[in-house]
Amino acid sequence: MKHLIAPSVLSADFANLQDDIEMINHSEADWFHIDIMDGVFVPNISFGFPVLKAIQKHALKPLDVHLMIVDPDRYLAEFKAAGAENITVHIEACTHLHRTLHAIKDLGCRAGVAVNPHTSVDLLEDVIENLDMVCLMSVNPGFGGQKFIENTYKKIRTLRAMAAGRNDNLLIEVDGGVSNTNALKLIQAGADVLVAGNAVFSANDPVFEISVLKRLS
Ligand code: DX5
Ligand code: ZN
């Protein structure tokens, strides 16, 4: 499968959000990556439903919603109603992950689980068949523009091996510090979806940067 590119709206210009949404619409990007932060699970607050609905109004590509919030179960239906096609919850924030994943699927969304850099992918052993996607955090979640953590390559390979024969359609997403300096190596290690915030939005030509990331092989 050709890898997917999901620019992270967290790094967009919120005063001109529509422009940045149109830029993604017209680029080779595949998804909009939407970071929801509650100031409790992570030390930052991003945005909530009013902004998400505004994004949905203009976005012509699927919304990949990454929930960095405690007790995500409370809000799953609301995120679906706000346009989420993928809903990713953090393993560290879910007491009953299996139940949460099924609740996401019952809404008709793709179910993802994110794991922090310190969390072993071995913890996914008993839910690997229930997952549509795993989001490997390659930075500690909370902020854009952080340095990529090299241990991620090993986690991609371990996860791919675990999923082999049990969930061959599993999407592996890498989130944090992705740029054109590490993207090819991530794809070669087995990543399917690359999230990129700073690399896209700090580029002189974001559309070109997206196309550089998309065309790597
Ligand atoms: C971090 C977020 C990321 C972030 C990525 O907590 O989950 O999606 O926006 O941004 P960059 O690509 O700048 O590291
Ligand atoms: Zn994210």
Spatial gap, N to C terminus: 11 Å
Largest sheet, if any?
A: 8 strands, parallel
CATH superfamily annotation: Aldolase class I
For the secondary structure, the number of strands is: 8
Radius of gyration: 16 Å
Please, how many domains? 1
- At the first level of CATH, the class is Alpha Beta
Which strand-content bin applies to the residues? Answer: 15-25%
Low-confidence stretches: none
At CATH level 3, the topology is: TIM Barrel
The helix count comes to 8
Which distinct ligands sit in these coordinates?
Answer: D-xylitol-5-phosphate, zinc ion
Outline type: globular
Helicity range:
25-40%
Helix vs. strand class: alpha/beta
N-to-C series of helices and strands: EHEHEHEHEEHEHEHH
State mean pLDDT (0 to 100 scale): 98
What does this structure look like?
This protein has a single domain, classed as TIM Barrel, CATH 3.20.20.70. Helix 2 links the parallel strand 2 (32-37) and strand 3 (63-68). The longest helix is centred in the last third of the chain and has 12 residues, at 152-163. The chain is of the alpha/beta class and 217 residues long. It has an eight-stranded parallel β-sheet. The chain is globular. The protein contains eight helices and eight strands. Bound molecules: D-xylitol-5-phosphate and zinc ion. D-xylitol-5-phosphate binds at residues 8, 10-11, 33, 35, 66, 139, 141-142, 144-146, 175-178, 195-199.
